[in-house]
Amino acid sequence: MDVYDLAATCCLCELTEKSSTNRSMACDIPDFTRGAWRTNKPLGIVDIDLQKMGFGLDKKTDLKAV
User: Domain coordinates of the chain in residue numbers?
Assistant: First the structure.
């Protein structure tokens, strides 16, 4: 998920309201990427090492700040 996916997701509330005030007429979702979604490469999966960030394992909560 990137900023363009976030924008498309967040605009759904406003588009839903617009649609319902217009007797449930369909609304187009804006293309915030201006067509770049066709050629964008997918984002890779980022693996985060929590111990490097100062977190360790705790039996009660699974994680604790170190």
Answer: 3-65
